[in-house]
Specification:
Layout: E1 2-6, E2 8-10, E3 14-16, H1 34-44, E4 48-52, H2 53-61, H3 66-75, E5 79-88, H4 92-109, E6 113-118, H5 124-139, E7 143-147, H6 157-167, E8 172-177, H7 178-183, H8 188-193, E9 199-204, H9 217-223, H10 235-244, E10 250-253, H11 258-261, H12 265-276
Parallel strand pairs: 1-4, 1-10, 4-5, 5-6, 6-7, 7-8, 8-9, 9-10
Antiparallel strand pairs: 2-3
Helix pairs in contact: 1-12, 4-5, 5-6
Length: about 280
C-alpha cells in the first residue's frame, strides 16, 4: 500500500489546493514553491505527491521546466503518484488537447495515473472521447483514471466502469474517492461489485456530515472536506471493502479545505499523514 499526499483541488477548472488566492475557488494567485511543497510532503512521511497542471503551469511561468521540477521531485525522494488532469467535455478538440498536455506531464514526471473527469452527457460519443484520451495517456506510459462525481453527468461507479470497459481495462481504471462514494447514490453493493482490476486508485478523505439532496455538493466538496477520521464517513468499513477484494494499491489523501490549506503545506501534510496512518499501514 502506497500513501500519497494529494496537493490539488479538482473542479471544471484546474486549481491547486495551495494557490495563494483571494478566497476559496479563486483561480488566481501564486503556487507554492515546488521545493517547499516537496520538502513538506517528504518530511511528513509520504513517498508520493499528487500534482496538477495548474500548479505545473504556474511553475513554468517562473521559468521552470517539467524536467527540472521532475528532477527536484526525485531529489526529494518522492515520485509523482497522480497528475490532474483532463476533462472530457462537449468540446472534442479541447478534450484532446487537455489529454495531450496531461500526457506530456505524465511522461515528464513518470506518473502512473492521469486523472480525468467527465462533463459531457453520457453516450457513445463521450465514451469514444474518453477512450481517445486513455489512448493518449497510454502512449505516455500512464493509465487514465476516471472519477465519478455525484454533481456531474458521470455520477456513479457503474457510469465510470462503462467508460473503462470501452477504453480497455489495461488503459483505464475507476478512481474511487471516498467523498463521492459516501455523498453519492452508490451503495456498498456497487463498491463490492467493482473488480480490483478495474480500480485505478483511491482518494481518501472525510466530511463533517452526510449531505441532503438540497446541498451544494460542489461547494461542499471543494472547500469543506476534513481529514480522514475527523468526519462521519465509515472509513474502516470502506478500507475493509477494498482489502477484501485484494486491493493493495495507491491511496491518495485528498482533502479540499480552505481552512486546512491556509495552514500551509507543512502542517497540511503532517496532518494528512497522521490521519491516513489511522487506516492504512
Amino acid at each position: 500500500m502506497e500513501l500519497c499526499c494529494n496537493m490539488f483541488g479538482f473542479s471544471p477548472f484546474i486549481r491547486s489546493a495551495f494557490v495563494r488566492s483571494a478566497g476559496p475557488g479563486a483561480a488566481g494567485g501564486e503556487a507554492v514553491d515546488p521545493g517547499e511543497l516537496f520538502d513538506a510532503v517528504r518530511a511528513a512521511g509520504f513517498t508520493g505527491v499528487g500534482l496538477d497542471l495548474f500548479t505545473v503551469d504556474a511553475w513554468a511561468g517562473r521559468g521552470r521546466t517539467l524536467a527540472g521540477v521532475a528532477r527536484d521531485l526525485a531529489a526529494a525522494g518522492l515520485r509523482c503518484s497522480e497528475m490532474l488532469g483532463f476533462v472530457v467535455s462537449d468540446d472534442a478538440e479541447g478534450t484532446y488537447e487537455g489529454a495531450r498536455r496531461v500526457a506530456e506531464a505524465v511522461a515528464a514526471f513518470g506518473a502512473p495515473y492521469a486523472l480525468g473527469m467527465v462533463t459531457a452527457p453520457p453516450g457513445p460519443r463521450t465514451a469514444d472521447l474518453f477512450a481517445r484520451c486513455a489512448e493518449v495517456v497510454a502512449d505516455a506510459d500512464g493509465t487514465a483514471a476516471v472519477e465519478f462525481l455525484p454533481f456531474t453527468p458521470l455520477a456513479t461507479i457503474a457510469d465510470a466502469r462503462a467508460l473503462v470497459r470501452h477504453a480497455g481495462a489495461g488503459r483505464a481504471g475507476v478512481l474511487v474517492d471516498t467523498w463521492h462514494f459516501f455523498q453519492g447514490p452508490d451503495s456498498w453493493d456497487e463498491l463490492s461489485a467493482l473488480p480490483a482490476e478495474e480500480l485505478a486508485y483511491v482518494q481518501f478523505n472525510d466530511h463533517p456530515q452526510l449531505l441532503g439532496a438540497d446541498a451544494d455538493l460542489y461547494h461542499e466538496c471543494m472547500t469543506r472536506r476534513v481529514m480522514p477520521g475527523d468526519g462521519v464517513f465509515p472509513l474502516d468499513a470502506f478500507r475493509d471493502a477494498l482489502t477484501a477484494k485484494g486491493y493493495a494499491g495507491l491511496v491518495s489523501v485528498e482533502v479540499n479545505s480552505a481552512e486546512l490549506a491556509a495552514l500551509g503545506p507543512d502542517e497540511f501534510a503532517r496532518r494528512a499523514w497522521a490521519a491516513a496512518r489511522r487506516y492504512w499501514s
